[in-house]
Structures are given as structure tokens and as C-alpha cells.
Specification:
With 253 residues, the protein is α+β, with helices and mostly antiparallel strands. 32% of the residues are buried. It is 45% helix and 12% strand. A hairpin with a 2-residue loop joins β3 and β4. The protein has a 4-stranded mixed sheet with strand order 2-1-3-4, covered by helices on one side. α4 (111-133) packs antiparallel against α5 (139-153) and α4 packs parallel to α6 (169-189).
């Protein structure tokens, strides 16, 4: 897809007035740093829907009350305002946008590829959970099987560098998390997730050539600081000689 030079609006916060809701405008409510919202943002961009779906960034740390009250009672992102209703959940939304809007299709017609797409999309929750829980032990070791699973999946079709050969919703489902953990593991653990995984390395390389994805990426420094705050400062309970001692620790848990 050709690059589009788009102005990204300033995120709306608790002091912001709501847009003119349900006026026929299709709006995609996102956070600029949310990986779930990033999935739908990439899909919208790749299909060339910049003029059809308006981006409405929300400040999740200071979100406006009207967002929950008038837009999406779940009070999270992403959410899509379309045809007088609001729908959410990122995996449902990327399929919805692909099916209900113009632009290149992001799911193949081939039966075998369709089946494999559903299998891989179903695995995303396990993949994400494995990465997040890996910090309870040796993070690099615990996360390796998840990246090995992707490496193996990328060997399935040989007609392109992506999971289904050609770029699809499957790639969109995974890249926000691979992006984040590649940066964090490299910076804080000196662990290269692509080492010994040539298919994964090429997949990331090819994705970084896609403008629809590149404009959605978060600053690597911001990612590292966010995940350091989330995972590196933990309170651990040390049990010693029958006594419970609470100590602050910087160990990966």
C-alpha cells in the first residue's frame, strides 16, 4: 500500500468534549500505545481506509467519562463506531473491518490457508499469556517455546515471508506483541528473539517495510520504560526459617 501522510489527532482526555457521536461518521477509538488497538489501526491503514474510518485516540491514563457513558460501556480500546453501533474486541474488529469495508482482502480464499489462519489466530491468547508469564522465572527460557511456535508456523507456506505467504490478518494479530517483546528482551535481557529463527527474522524485516504498520509503532524507548516499570520492580515474599520477609526486588518474576 502507498504511504499516507496522516495527522494523528491528540488523544482525548477527561477534559475533552466528545465528538458528535452517531452522526454517520465511522470512528476507530484507540490508544496510540495499546497493542490491541494497534491491530485494528494497522488493518484500517492497510485497506486504505484513512478517509472512511476516523481515528479517535483516547488517553487511557486520564480517559474521559463520556467514553464509558456514551460510547463503549466496556471502557477500553479498541472500539469501532459504525452504522449506529459500537463494537469492540481487537480480533473480532480486524475481521469486521476486513469484511465490511473496501480495500485489499486480508484473508485468503484458499481453504488450507483459511484453516491455518483460524488456528494461528486462536493461538494468540496463549502466545501473549506465555510472554507475560515468562517473567515469573527465566524470561528468555520461558518465552522461547512461543517464539519457536511462530518460527515453525512460518515454514508452513513458501509463497511469501508471512504466515499465510502473503500479508494477512494473522500477521496483524501477532506483530504488536512481537514488536514489544523483541525490543524489551533485547534491551533488558540481551536476548535476541530472532537468533536461530531465520523465518521470524525475515518476517519482522518484511513487516517493517509495510507503511500501514510502520506508522503505528511505539517509540522503542517508551516500550522499554513501560515494561521495566511493569516487570522489573516487583515485591517478593521471601520465606526464611518460618518467617515471611517482604523485600523489594528487581528480579524478573
Amino acid at each position: 500500500m502507498a504511504a499516507v501522510n496522516e495527522h494523528i489527532p491528540t488523544p482525548l482526555d477527561a477534559t475533552s468534549e466528545p465528538p458528535p457521536l452517531f452522526d454517520g461518521t465511522t470512528r476507530l477509538y484507540i490508544s496510540l500505545s495499546c497493542p490491541y488497538a494497534q491491530r485494528v489501526w494497522i488493518t484500517r491503514n492497510y485497506k486504505g481506509l484513512h478517509d472512511k474510518i476516523k481515528l479517535v485516540p483516547i488517553n487511557l491514563q486520564n480517559r474521559p467519562a463520556w467514553y464509558k457513558e456514551k460510547v463503549y460501556p466496556e471502557n477500553k480500546v479498541p472500539a469501532l463506531e459504525h452504522n449506529g453501533k459500537v463494537i469492540g474486541e481487537s480480533l473480532d474488529l480486524i475481521k469486521y473491518v476486513d469484511s465490511n469495508f473496501e480495500g485489499p482482502s486480508l484473508l485468503p480464499h484458499d481453504h488450507a490457508k483459511k484453516e491455518f489462519a483460524e488456528e494461528l489466530i486462536a493461538y494468540t491468547d496463549t502466545f501473549i499469556k506465555t510472554l507475560y508469564t515468562s517473567f515469573k522465572g527465566d524470561a528468555a527460557k520461558e518465552a522461547s517455546p512461543a517464539f519457536d511456535h511462530l518460527e515453525k508456523a512460518l515454514h508452513k507456506f513458501d509463497d511469501g515471508p508471512f504466515f499465510l505467504g502473503q500479508f494477512s490478518l494473522v500477521d496483524i494479530a501477532y506483530i504488536p506483541y512481537v514488536e514489544r517483546f523483541q525490543v524489551f528482551f533485547s534491551a533488558e535481557l540481551n536476548y535476541d528473539i530472532t537468533a536461530g529463527r531465520p523465518k521470524l527474522a525475515r518476517w519482522i524485516e518484511e513487516l517493517n517495510k509495510i507503511d500501514a504498520y510502520k506508522v503505528t509503532k511505539t517509540d522503542p524507548k517508551e516500550l522499554v520504560e513501560f515494561y521495566k516499570a511493569r516487570f522489573l520492580t516487583q515485591v517478593v515474599v521471601v520465606v526464611m526459617m518460618g518467617l515471611h520477609v517482604v523485600a523489594s526486588s528487581s528480579r524478573y518474576l
